[in-house]
């Protein structure tokens, strides 16, 4: 049944702190502001987002209280815990958001019920101290019909901070690609009402990023399953050797209900498999095991508490692992791909009813599925798609990826579409099931749809995956990944990103501590504010378009003088990914003053001949183009798409540094 749209106009109230009382401990507040927004409302129910701003002493734990005037009841809350006695409501912090510095914020969201009316609370208190000086709230939004299945259970792990601005009206459709960034080989799961997506990262660290969504359309960065590429090979440290196009290929990601634990499993270098685990999808991951066998392109299924892994290239096998996922109990070949199909790989494993399914890709233009009543076969086979036109103009056939079932019982297939030079983009379509139990892809006019009806889920906008980072937090956000493992003694964040030179080289591909960020398609611009006043002679620092054919704009310091340079001609071989060109300056100009803004605008629409252009500014407002347009390589062999990269390396001796005060992607 089609769900009625949720109302997304918002009721908001802000209450500003104006007290002069002195806090007697770190648990009390001398002032506070609360933003309370009703973001969705239907007959008998509503959703709300709340943001607390602490205007008093730092808090190490908090409780926010209010009274409902019309008998509303909180039914489900995330990012905290709630108690309600009659009209009195008290929300306490969750473990991960208990500390609020002076001027800091904490957020939580909830669903509630109402009867005759739904006015906003007139006042709030934080740790027993009133937040005063509020404005009069506007009338609540009119009610609409509720969604067919409102959320009924809280997420298993805490979601990220809800958006602080009310969401816009939920659209009736979504558009592919769902995420126009390079997230390939995806594995997708649902835990409670929250969706997670894991992807390949090869030689970038941290690895195996986790994205999070509440509606399958809006996605955000949540964390990484592999905090550091700890894969028993110094090449991942980019210190004397390199690991380009090694590391994290198609890997497995899942959640086991019986022990409330997330697991990641991946084979590296075709000869060993690592297992990582965490109680939270976005943080706390640690290595659990090394298994001296390659589960190539693995998919993981928990049948109850029993772990199974489907894997292989053409010869598809299933392994049962020990309960703690540290060893193999049994493995067996279950399917040999016929020559008429060619190659099948990219396994995902599911159970639906009495059947086990292995979801397989024919790279890079087909998708197949196997089915059996036993995890170890025998399996039947069906073709799901072959040479199906995709939704991205100039891109490839959607394939690989995985299936997910919503809490409402609907199924979706999240594949990826080859779209170089940008990479491989997550692309989603609905799945139905035939009367005899086979998955059927829903197409639009004989192709993968550019758009489909939006999933029957509460609309949940999230913060943009672009934006500006001033590096004021104590750690880097999950949108950032280093080229190989960083030297952690050579960088810091909190007062800008400080990059000390970590490598003496004339080759950017050998330089440690190049920090990268995915490019937003179909085109986007990155701008960095760079303080180069502490560079040493021979140092090179700047902003790169990073791939196996690269170019950059940045500062060269030689003989005490600095110049801004556009450098191109950085190249690797496709045989071993060795450096074949370290680049040369295509254009340059003398600069001084110690501060510069560097900019690159990149068109990553699929196809050959796409370009990036470089420019700079000495005042942050007037930009000057520098050098020729750089033609991007659209070959697939490097697998990862182009990234923005910030670097600082020495050609003479270590000791210099730069500070990136801002990195903006628009």
From TrEMBL:
<keyword id="KW-0326">Glycosidase</keyword>
<feature type="domain" description="CBM2">
    <location>
        <begin position="25"/>
        <end position="134"/>
    </location>
</feature>
<comment type="similarity">
    <text>Belongs to the glycosyl hydrolase 43 family.</text>
</comment>
<feature type="signal peptide">
    <location>
        <begin position="1"/>
        <end position="28"/>
    </location>
</feature>
<dbReference type="GO" id="GO:0030247">
    <property type="term" value="F:polysaccharide binding"/>
</dbReference>
<keyword id="KW-0378">Hydrolase</keyword>
<keyword id="KW-0732">Signal</keyword>
<dbReference type="InterPro" id="IPR012291">
    <property type="entry name" value="CBM2_carb-bd_dom_sf"/>
</dbReference>
<dbReference type="GO" id="GO:0004553">
    <property type="term" value="F:hydrolase activity, hydrolyzing O-glycosyl compounds"/>
</dbReference>
<dbReference type="Pfam" id="PF04616">
    <property type="entry name" value="Glyco_hydro_43"/>
</dbReference>
<dbReference type="InterPro" id="IPR051795">
    <property type="entry name" value="Glycosyl_Hydrlase_43"/>
</dbReference>
<dbReference type="InterPro" id="IPR008965">
    <property type="entry name" value="CBM2/CBM3_carb-bd_dom_sf"/>
</dbReference>
<dbReference type="Pfam" id="PF17851">
    <property type="entry name" value="GH43_C2"/>
</dbReference>
<feature type="compositionally biased region" description="Pro residues">
    <location>
        <begin position="138"/>
        <end position="169"/>
    </location>
</feature>
<protein>
    <submittedName>
        <fullName>Xylosidase</fullName>
    </submittedName>
</protein>
<dbReference type="InterPro" id="IPR013320">
    <property type="entry name" value="ConA-like_dom_sf"/>
</dbReference>
<dbReference type="Pfam" id="PF00553">
    <property type="entry name" value="CBM_2"/>
</dbReference>
<dbReference type="InterPro" id="IPR023296">
    <property type="entry name" value="Glyco_hydro_beta-prop_sf"/>
</dbReference>
<dbReference type="InterPro" id="IPR001919">
    <property type="entry name" value="CBD2"/>
</dbReference>
<dbReference type="GO" id="GO:0005975">
    <property type="term" value="P:carbohydrate metabolic process"/>
</dbReference>
<dbReference type="InterPro" id="IPR041542">
    <property type="entry name" value="GH43_C2"/>
</dbReference>
<feature type="region of interest" description="Disordered">
    <location>
        <begin position="130"/>
        <end position="172"/>
    </location>
</feature>
<dbReference type="InterPro" id="IPR006710">
    <property type="entry name" value="Glyco_hydro_43"/>
</dbReference>
